Amino acid sequence: MAPRIRLPRFTLFTGGKECSLCEVAKQDLANLRRSIPFELDLWNIRDPPIGANEREAKKWRRLYQYDICF
Asked: How far apart are CA 67 and CA 47, in angstroms?
């Protein structure tokens, strides 16, 4: 049995569809992913993923609120 290869995992913190810079970054990552496989998680700091820890969600929002377009 061949060993299972783990792909690198990246998280892109976004401001949602209203963030035009985030949309550009997502497109660039999609293009890159065609030649270099990796897993991508999207974390919208305004609308955290279902089941996200509230404390963690607040931490990420405080950290990135001024770096992401709203």
From this structure: 16
